[in-house]
Structure formats: C-alpha cells, structure tokens
Amino acid sequence: MSAVLRGSDLPLAEAFDLALVDLDGVAYKGHEPIVHAAHGLTSARERGLRLVFVTNNASREPGSVSDQLTSLDIPAEPADVMTAAQACARLLADHVAPGARVLVVGGAGLVTAVTEAGYEVVTSADDRPDAVAQGFDPSLGWKDLAEAAYAVAAGAAYVVSNRDLSLPTARGFAPGNGALVGAVVAATGVEPSSAGKPSPAMYAMAVERVGAERPLVVGDRLDTDLAGARSGGYPGLHVLTGVNSARDDVLAHPGERPDFIGADLRSLLEPHPLPVVGDDGWWTCREASARVVGDQLEVQAGPHGSDPVDLVRAACSAAWAHVDAGGTLDPASVPEMAVPAESDV
User: Mind telling me which GO cellular component terms the entry cites (predicted)?
Assistant: First the structure.
C-alpha cells in the first residue's frame, strides 16, 4: 500500500465540511493553549467548517472538555466532543448484552458513558463483572489495575478506550492509558479490544452525528490520529504542534502517512501546494526541493522567509516515492526540519 501527499488549491476549511480535531497536542497541551489554535479553529468555523473534537482521553465528560475549550477561546458545546469513553461503551456491545455488569477502571467520563449505554457499573472483581472497561484517569493506582487484572483473569471481556503509550502535558510526555493497560496485559496475558484511535470508530461516529460528506481528520500523532484516518479512508492533516515531528512524517510507513502537513491549525486556512517531480529526480514544493540518491535524502530549503513546511512536503514526497518503489532510505540522512512557531499576523 502506498500513500502520497495531496494538494488543495482551496484552503482546507473550504475544501472540507467537517474537521475531526484531536485535542491534546492540537487544540491544547494539558491545560495550556497551543499557539494559533484558537485563531485557526475560530477562523475555520467562520468559513463554514464544522468542528468535532475527537479525543482518545476517556477520563473526562464531554461537558468538561467543551468548557476547557471555551476557556481557551475555542467556543464548544458538549455535542461538539466525541470521546474514547463513548466509543468504548459502544464497543462493549460487541462482547456483552445491555444490563451486564461492567467493572469500570477509569474516570468519570467512562463511568457516565458505560452507564448511559445501559450497563450496570461495578467497582470490584468480587462483583463478578461480565466485562472490564478501562480508560485513562490520572488518579488510577495499583489497586484499580489489580481489580481489572483479577476480573480479566476470571474471564471478563476486556475493552479499553485506547492504547496510547504517552500523552502530552504542559511539563512533557507522561504515561498514557496504553502504559496502564500494559500492566494488566502483563499480569493476565489477555489482549483487550481497543475503541480509540487508531481504530476509525470514533471518526465514523462523529461523521454520522454531523452528517458530513467531506470530513478531514486533524491530529498530531501518526500512530493514532493519522493511522486512524488512513484505516477509515479519511484525509488527514498532521499539525506539527504535538507528539510527532516533520522528520517523523518523512520516515512514516504508508499506514500512518498524512495527506496534508501544516505547522499549526492556521494551516486549515491555507491552500496546500502539491510537490511535483522533475526529470532530474528533484521533488519541488514552491521554493524547496528534495530528492533521494542511493539511500540518502538530500534537501534544499527555500530562501529566508519562505514556508518551512514546503521543505517537509518536498522531503516526504521524495522519500515516500523512493520507498514505495522498493528503495531503502537511511534514517540518518533525514534532518529534523524544525518548523518554528511564529506570532499571529
């Protein structure tokens, strides 16, 4: 399977009718705003783009998430939020019938979602739950994970909100739900079913909720946000404000490649140029160029003042075409290609 960058002569906010926007690393980082996020999203809305915020975080209620977004100058309602807790509750139906007992190991958002889906929430493996639903909550401790392990080992179905190993915070990257799930898996040997990204289930639920015809996934993680976009057949925009870098884009395997790349959420307001290849093997995106010679990536940045993302686009096109044709690429030849944040203009 190959995957290539797309171009758009229209700003993305006009080319698509719905943006499925990740939260941590895209709209905010922990409790702190991300530069240009509010401007990019509110301006995109003004151009007619609908927004649904799709998060692998299952610890919080949709209303809590929308309140935080609103406090960061990104007005939102609970109906604008789709959480992995909601997807996890829906996934339970594949394993147990409504009314079944479910041991919830997670935060208030997951408890609410499982309850609203018609299940009886219990708090101990001694209650003989039919299933375990696990999601991230910063207050989880050894006793909670032990209860999950006891229940799973006794035969309860095991469903988790997501398997993200890390999550971005204002202080750096902290263990995510996947790290905590790993403790239960290590204790029981049982692999769970996962509701969150990279499963495209939440994207499909959000598209159905809105009735969108031209949805766009917006995320910062290749292995969840963009992999989910690829697996669901949705175009994906990678913004360079979170987990994965421009260098990661160049080295991404086809199932995790983005369709579009932007420095931040202002990229929703811009056309996206499509790199083209010349007879000399150079891929050019406006004033930036890249090619692969042997297994070495060579890049030529544009002049000072040109868009640094153009170099990323050219490098991705050159590297992906080379690898998809059966070539190899030396990772050491791929530079960082940092895209600095700039002040609003």
Answer: cytoplasm
pTM of this prediction exceeds 0.90: no
Domain total for the chain?
A: 3
Containing structural domain, residue 309:
276-333
* pLDDT tens-digit readout, 223-252: 999 999 999 999 999 999 999 999 999 999
Co-location of 180 and 325 in the same domain = no
Tell me whether strands 172-175 and 193-194 are parallel, antiparallel or unpaired.
unpaired
What whole-number distance in Å separates Cα of residue 342 and Cα of residue 345? Answer: 9
| Rounded distance between C-alpha atoms, residue 72 and residue 81, angstroms | 15
Active site (annotated) includes residue 324: no
Residues 257 and 281 in one domain: no
Catalytic residue among 17, 24, 280, 330: 24
Q: List CB contacts of 90: < 8 A, sequence separation 6 or more.
A: 117, 195, 201, 205
Last residue of a domain, one of 251, 269, 287: 269
100 part of a folded domain: yes
Q: Are residues 123 and 218 in the same domain?
A: no
Please say if 80 is a catalytic residue.
no
What are the pLDDT digits (tens) for 127-138? 999 999 999 999
